Structure formats: C-alpha cells, structure tokens
C-alpha cells in the first residue's frame, strides 16, 4: 500500500484507473523528475523523523500490580470468520473481557498514562488512542501460539497491546516479524529477572506477523488489548474478524489505514499541500501497484507496471 498524488502518464489504455507502462527492456523503470518531485522527496525525508515504531515494549512502571484473576475455558483462534480450537496452533486458556475486573483505581489511571505513551511511540502524538481489553490469556507448560496475524476485534483497531502482570514462568517470548529478515523479541522482563515482580508490555501493529514461543515452565498470564483510533477520527466502520492487511479494510478506512512511515509521509504532504494555493493543491489517492516481468521465447524480456486507484474516483 502506498500514498500517491494524482499524476498523468502515457498509456495505451483509455481507462484512467488502469494505466499500464510497457517497455522492451527490463531495465526501463518509470522515474519521476522535476523541481516539484525533488521538493516532495525532501518533505518525505523529513517525515521519517515523526514515523512511529513498528513494535516496542518494556516495563509498565505506570501500572500497579494487577488483582487476582480467574481463568475459564480453552482459547480459540480466528480464521477469517471462524473461531476454532486446535492445540497444534494455539494451546492456552482464556477469560473473556467481561469477566475481568480491576478494583485498584490506580490501574485505570495507569492505563491512561500507558495509552499516551503508546500513542506517542506509534506516531499518533496528540491522538487519544483507546486501549480496549479483549481477553485474559493463560499459557501453561507447552502453551504457545504459532506465527499468525491478528484479526480485527474492534472498529478502528490499529495495533495490539500485550500486557503481562507479574508472574513467574520460563519461555513464552513474544516474537514479532517484520518482512522476512527482521524479528523483534519481547521477553517481558525475564532477562533482567523482573517478570515475577513488575508488569511489562509489548505493542505491535495488528497486521504484523507474530508468534508466542512455547512456555517451558510455570504459567504465563497476559492481558490482550485492542489499540483503537478514537471514534471522532474513524472515517468508516469496518467488518469484524477481518485481517487489517486486506484491501477492503484499506478502502473503507482510507488514510486512517496508514501506519508508521506511510502515515507520517501522508500528513507531511497534506500539510505542505494546505500551504499552497487551491489550484496547486495535491489530490491524494490510495493506489495498488503491481510489477510483472514476462520472459519470452524470442529472448525479449517485457516489463509491465500497472497502477490503479483502489478507491476508483474517490480521493482521500
């Protein structure tokens, strides 16, 4: 997914929303040029300074020790619109959010402080993100959750918060994957021996692949929250149990679906556009781009670059 301004291009197709660039040489690539493009590149470069973090966590020192909780029922996992139970995929127990109560008033004020910290680190400074409790999870020895992506639990969900109250166990690290080369590991205080005494947390984008490694000893207790945009900034309501990376989610949420560097770049361009005259303002579209290379028997390689707006005639 990328944010692009409305641009003109030569095309053999009459459909403005399905343009195609053809070349007889695979080395030929459409490249923007001109003073305006250079200025835009500078704006985009500055945007990296305000982009949020992909995943982060640490000690939740703003929270008190959690009250005692009771566990009831095996935990399922989601697959599109189905809810299944398969211990080869996930082995653990769950307690629904409606059956969890926090009687310590310091917990609620601490969660407000943690929400502010999360918003700032995700790149949503000044936006009152909401942390909505989804479930309490308990993993015993052998408990795990294989590599997966979260399904949407709440309208406007953009990320997941895993909060671990003090508890003693071994194993059970949360591993978050970024592309095929990078992974982030959250041990929730086990390395510095504070897991049994202090609450810890981890945050990752909801569409980031992640896995919970096997718990090898003891019990791992964790609270899972959906991190959501406030209702005042949600553009449209979306379907539940839908992968946040699906095109339909992007279409319906529009610019609200942007995260990290994409979100920072969009707002940088939007701010720059607002500073110019009306006839010079940029029009923003969410578009899908595909790059295909075709190998032919006549030793001529063909490159096809196609782009079209996923919002058709609508712009952000």
UniProtKB/TrEMBL annotation:
What would you give as a GO molecular function for this chain, any one?
A: oxidoreductase activity
Q: Fe2OG dioxygenase domain: which residues?
A: 127-229
Residue ranges annotated as compositionally biased, kind Low complexity, are: 8-21
Keywords (alphabetical) are: Iron, Metal-binding, Oxidoreductase
List every stretch annotated Disordered: 1-29
Question: Is the keyword Ligase in the record?
Answer: no
Question: This protein's superkingdom?
Answer: Eukaryota
Q: Where are the transmembrane segments?
A: none
Q: What InterPro entries does its record include?
A: Oxoglu/Fe-dep_dioxygenase_dom, Pro_4_hyd_alph_FE2OG_OXY
| PROSITE patterns, per database record | FE2OG_OXY
Write out the similarity annotation. Belongs to the iron/ascorbate-dependent oxidoreductase family.
Which PANTHER family does UniProt cross-reference here?
FE2OG DIOXYGENASE DOMAIN-CONTAINING PROTEIN (PTHR33099), MYND-TYPE DOMAIN-CONTAINING PROTEIN (PTHR33099:SF7)
Q: Output this protein's name.
A: Fe2OG dioxygenase domain-containing protein
């Amino acid at each position: 997914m990328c944010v692009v301004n409305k641009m003109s291009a030569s095309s053999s197709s009459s459909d403005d929303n399905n343009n195609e660039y053809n070349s007889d040489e695979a080395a030929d690539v459409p490249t923007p040029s001109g003073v305006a493009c250079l200025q835009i590149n500078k704006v985009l470069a500055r945007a990296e300074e305000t982009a949020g973090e992909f995943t982060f966590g640490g000690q939740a020192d703003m929270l008190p020790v959690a009250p005692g909780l009771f566990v009831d029922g095996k935990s399922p996992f989601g697959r599109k619109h189905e809810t299944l139970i398969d211990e080869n995929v996930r082995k653990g127990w769950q307690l629904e959010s409606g059956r969890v109560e926090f009687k310590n008033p310091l917990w609620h004020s601490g969660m407000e402080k943690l929400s502010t910290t999360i918003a700032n680190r995700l790149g949503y400074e000044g936006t009152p993100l909401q942390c909505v409790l989804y479930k309490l999870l308990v993993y015993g020895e052998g408990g795990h959750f294989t590599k997966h992506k979260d399904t949407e639990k709440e309208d406007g969900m953009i990320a997941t918060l895993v909060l671990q109250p003090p508890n003693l166990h071994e194993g059970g690290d949360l591993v978050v994957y970024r592309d095929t080369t990078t992974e982030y590991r959250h041990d929730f205080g086990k390395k510095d021996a504070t897991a049994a005494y202090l609450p810890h947390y981890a945050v990752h984008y909801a569409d980031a692949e992640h896995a919970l490694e096997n718990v090898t000893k003891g019990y791992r207790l964790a609270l899972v929250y959906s991190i959501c945009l406030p209702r005042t900034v949600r553009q449209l309501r979306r379907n539940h149990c839908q992968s946040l990376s699906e095109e339909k989610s992007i279409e319906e949420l529009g610019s609200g679906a942007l995260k990290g560097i994409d979100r920072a770049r969009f707002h940088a361009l939007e701010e720059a556009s607002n500073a110019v005259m009306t006839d010079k303002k940029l029009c923003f579209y969410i578009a899908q781009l595909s790059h295909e290379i075709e190998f032919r028997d006549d030793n001529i390689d063909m490159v096809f670059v196609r782009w079209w707006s996923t919002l058709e005639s609508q712009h952000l």
